[in-house]
From TrEMBL, chain A:
E.C. designation(s): 2.7.6.1
Organism: Podospora bellae-mahoneyi
SMART domains assigned: Pribosyltran_N (SM01400)
Protein name: ribose-phosphate diphosphokinase
Gene assigned in the entry: PRS1
Organism superkingdom: Eukaryota
Domain Ribose-phosphate pyrophosphokinase N-terminal intervals: 5-120
Known catalytic reactions: D-ribose 5-phosphate + ATP = 5-phospho-alpha-D-ribose 1-diphosphate + AMP + H(+)
Family membership noted in the UniProt record: Belongs to the ribose-phosphate pyrophosphokinase family.
Membrane-traversing stretches: none
CDD domains referenced in this protein's UniProt entry, alphabetically: PRTases_typeI (cd06223)
Enzyme class, first EC level, given as a word: transferase
Keywords: ATP-binding, Kinase, Magnesium, Metal-binding, Nucleotide biosynthesis, Nucleotide-binding, Transferase
From TrEMBL, chain B:
Source organism phylogeny: Eukaryota, Fungi, Dikarya, Ascomycota, Pezizomycotina
Keywords for the protein's UniProt record, in alphabetical order: ATP-binding, Kinase, Magnesium, Metal-binding, Nucleotide biosynthesis, Nucleotide-binding, Transferase
Protein's name in the database: ribose-phosphate diphosphokinase
Residue spans crossing the bilayer: none
Superkingdom classification of source: Eukaryota
Family: Belongs to the ribose-phosphate pyrophosphokinase family.
Native source species: Podospora bellae-mahoneyi
PANTHER family with a match to the protein in the record: RIBOSE-PHOSPHATE DIPHOSPHOKINASE FAMILY MEMBER, RIBOSE-PHOSPHATE PYROPHOSPHOKINASE 2
Reaction(s) catalysed by this chain's protein: D-ribose 5-phosphate + ATP = 5-phospho-alpha-D-ribose 1-diphosphate + AMP + H(+)
Length: 501, 323
């Protein structure tokens, strides 16, 4: 493209290379180093005068270095008289700190938006912002692209029985994202929610446990142990066999192999979207906290019967209130989830201690509304609830990013062990995989496939070891966004699902 | 009404240099405010103020540890932003060593003026006032549209020289032409001789040939500079001074960044001592380098904070070091 330069930050050279290949150009040259004292040094090695400049930068384990590098690159290009500088951020850093979740905490995402502004950025291209309200933090235009069409396409082409599958949200906060994918594929959807109310609910879940006949050690037993002991051998074998060939790297179009079943898998021809939907989403008529009265055997039956009675299922979805939406559908004593980080942040203000550093070096990047909060409190028992029928079906657990494994594994185990789901796909746009998250998810018997995009760079070695991992390629989407931006064309087609052949 | 109500100093410390913050707090007779700083599992920084800062006069002390400059800078920005969101009346960023100060001009085509970028970032985050020590170039003050108090380590250095040497035996030496002003100022105050080393610098952090201008024979040569990074310049300059007959050579430097192999370089040099202030966290470097001496700068910074809070003049500190 004439008059365009694409620079790559150090975080994502391979993604930039793919984007440039799609556009038939080479990445612009820049020398990115660090001085010996740790300051970032940027040298732009080609003229940017009156050019349309794009700077691609994702996240990395040295996130603050990455941000500074991006800001300095933007500043250098602006100082070098570029006509316009666009930041292409497939993964927007600090996007989870987009609200004041505790007293006197910072809204870092907004600050970062302002910092990009002062550095001289005139346009932002990003993918699946954690909260789309963040677009309002910027004074410049923001194109928030969606990876959903890509993911939907992958599902249609690679999941044999996808028409019967169920899309599951692993927390109440992400429900909207999940329903969107469910709508696109015309699938049923369900939800896994962890009850945060302690006290009386603890008794409820304890009773449930008792009824389930699960041998249960005191409250300190992590669920993973419990599950490992109960998982049966044949199941394991099946998982292993499946995982051998499950690693697929998709091409630019997001479709690795147009399988034979892909053609017949037209979602438009799905005959029963509305009706089935209403079956699986239970109404608010569910009696809260009385589930412990019911024996599990009856419960399944009762569930189906009751679900069939619901007529306005679809409308209900839009009004799901996480805290009240407890249903007796399938209850699991979700219980204790292992958590390596003592994360007391969100409640910090109530019990401040002077030795704040004793909290440890890392905490859970708390996320949308309620999610992952259940894992914040170790040593407290919770109840995890599955809403929706997943028996014998494939389940897509969907969220915007995979950072910590706890909630994913809990959700996967819930749908597999309690919901009797056949296969479990964990799907997210951003595969951040903090710590040993990927290893833990790989090791989890209840997860069959992990699907992410290459918005956040995953170290090659780590990816190679994870046989369950499938990485979808975003470069085509980003390249198209860059091209359309440069020529002033509409972005809208990029948001649409293409029902391809 | 609230504007007339007396407010208090809230001293907030970043994680880069808690020792300096503690010393400043002790000097001011207050406690460092309770805060929570941590890194999430994906290394994003998170910060929460543990007590109310509403309508208070907030001072945030953050240095930048060698090798962790960006980490410290981002934390500072987040701290400022958090206090701004928490309705602080005024936020003063106390940055003893200003990061990216050396990237202050467009010396090559398309070189970024990162110091200006940092200045803009600090203001965007919500800083109302900046306190710093020995800016690499005073022009950086012009990058800000908020007030900047650039304190000097010079009074502390003058006292150190007077206490340890007979000024008449000393020659103040600038290791490069750019630092001549700083060196002549000290020489003038002490009424001593002055010399200058001219160096050719082919690339950053690489030192070429050196020529001495002035006489250092049988004198204590005191090199003066604003920062010691890899120490290549200082050590070469010391060797040149020694060759020219100096009795002994020591160096007085404000910011002891001491990156890379600086400690090893120093240990193997002819320098008898490197005197730095504690603007930069030194960690175990004092143990590793017997030649390293540290002057405490916290009285000057604490006094500047007190005077800024009370609306008194800071000028006194430009010529006097509080005891």
């Amino acid at each position: 493209m004439r008059g365009t330069l694409i620079f790559s930050g150090t975080s994502c050279p391979s993604l930039t290379k793919q984007i440039c290949e799609n556009l038939g150009m080479a990445p612009a040259e820049a020398e990115l180093t660090q001085f010996s004292n740790g300051e970032t040094s940027v040298r732009i090695l080609t003229s940017v005068r009156e050019k349309d400049v794009f700077v691609v930068q994702s996240g990395s384990p040295k996130i603050n270095d990455t941000i500074m590098e991006l800001l300095i690159m933007i500043s250098a290009c602006k100082g070098g008289s570029a006509s316009k500088v666009t930041a292409v951020l497939p993964y927007f850093p600090y996007s989870r700190q987009s609200k004041k979740k505790s007293h006197r905490g910072a809204i870092t995402a907004r600050m970062l938006a302002n910092l990009l502004g002062v550095a001289g950025v005139k346009h932002i291209v990003t993918v699946d912002l954690h909260a789309s309200q963040m677009q309002g933090f910027f004074k410049c235009p923001v194109d928030n692209l969606h990876a959903e069409p890509l993911i939907a396409r992958w599902i249609r082409h690679n999941v044999p029985d996808w028409k019967e599958a169920v899309v599951v949200s692993k927390n109440a906060g992400g429900t909207k994202r999940v329903t969107s994918l469910a709508d696109a594929l015309k699938l049923n959807f369900g939800m896994v929610t962890t009850d945060k109310r302690r006290g009386h609910n603890m008794t409820a879940s304890m009773i449930m446990n008792h009824l389930d006949g699960i041998e249960r050690q005191p409250v300190l037993d992590p669920i993973s142990n419990q599950v490992r002991t109960t998982s049966t051998e044949p199941e394991k074998e099946a998982t292993n066999a499946q995982s051998q060939d499950s690693r697929v790297v998709a091409d630019g179009q997001g479709s690795p192999r147009p399988a034979a079943n892909g053609t017949c898998a037209r979602s438009a021809s799905n005959p029963k979207p509305h009706h089935t939907r209403s079956q699986t989403t239970l109404s608010q008529s569910s009696v809260i906290d009385e589930l412990d009265e019911e024996a599990e055997g009856d419960e399944l039956e009762f569930n189906d019967q009751r679900a069939a009675e619901v007529i306005h299922g679809r409308l209900v979805q839009g009004h799901i209130v996480p805290d009240d939406f407890v249903s007796p559908a399938e209850s699991v004593a979700g219980t204790e989830i292992p958590d390596e980080d003592p994360m007391v942040m969100s409640h910090a203000s109530s019990f401040f201690a002077p030795q704040s550093h004793a909290l440890g070096g890392s905490g859970d990047a708390e996320a949308s509304s309620d999610e992952e909060e259940e894992i914040l409190k170790p040593k407290v028992e919770h109840m995890i609830t599955l809403v929706g029928d997943v028996k014998g079906r494939s389940v897509f657990i969907v969220d915007d990013m995979i950072d910590k494994p706890g909630s994913w594994i809990a959700a996967a185990e819930t749908v597999r062990k309690r919901g009797k789901a056949e296969k479990v796909y964990c799907i997210a746009t951003h595969g951040v995989f903090g710590g040993d998250c990927l290893e833990q998810m790989q090791a989890c018997d209840c997860i069959d496939t992990i699907v992410v995009t290459n918005s956040y760079p995953i170290p090659e070695e780590k990816a190679r070891k994870a046989s369950k991992l499938v990485v979808l390629d975003l470069s085509f989407l980003l390249a198209e966004a860059i091209r359309r931006n440069h020529y002033g064309e509409s972005m809208s087609p990029l948001f649409q699902h293409v029902l391809d052949s | 009404m609230s504007a007339e109500m007396a407010n208090e100093i809230k001293l907030i410390s970043g994680r880069s240099h808690p020792e300096l913050s503690d010393k400043i707090a002790k000097r001011l007779g207050i406690e460092v405010a309770r805060t929570i700083s941590l890194n999430y599992s994906n290394q994003e920084t998170s910060f929460t103020v543990g007590e109310s800062v509403r309508d208070e006069d907030v001072f945030i002390v953050q240095s930048t540890a060698t090798g962790d400059v960006n980490e410290g800078l981002m934390e500072l920005l987040i701290m400022i932003s958090a206090c701004r969101t928490a309705s602080a009346r005024r936020i003063t960023a106390v940055i003893p060593n200003f990061p990216y100060a050396r990237q202050d001009k467009k010396d090559k085509s398309r070189a970024p003026i990162s110091a200006r970028l940092v200045a803009n970032m600090l203001q965007t985050a919500g800083a109302n006032h900046i306190v710093t020590v020995d800016l690499h170039a005073s022009q950086i003050q012009g990058f800000f549209s908020v007030p900047v108090d650039n304190l000097y380590a010079e009074p502390s250095f003058l006292r150190y020289i007077r206490e340890n040497f007979n000024p008449e035996d000393c020659v103040i030496v600038s290791p490069d032409a750019g630092g001549a002003k700083r060196a002549t100022s000290i020489a003038d105050h002490l009424n001593t001789a002055f010399a200058l080393i001219h160096k050719e610098r082919p690339r950053p952090n690489v030192v070429g040939r050196m020529v001495l201008v002035g006489n250092v024979e049988d004198k204590v040569a005191i090199l003066v500079d604003d920062m010691a990074d890899t120490c290549g310049t200082l050590v070469k300059a010391a060797a040149v001074l020694k060759e020219n007959g100096a009795k002994s050579v020591l160096a007085l430097v404000t910011h002891g960044i001491l990156s890379g192999n600086a400690i090893e370089t120093l240990n193997g040099s002819v320098l008898t001592a490197l005197v730095v202030t504690n603007t930069v966290p030194l960690g175990d470097k004092v143990q590793r380098c017997p030649k390293l001496r540290v002057i405490d700068i916290s009285p000057t910074v604490a006094e500047a904070i007190r005077r800024t809070h009370n609306g008194e003049s800071v000028s006194y500190l430009f010529t006097h070091a509080p005891v």
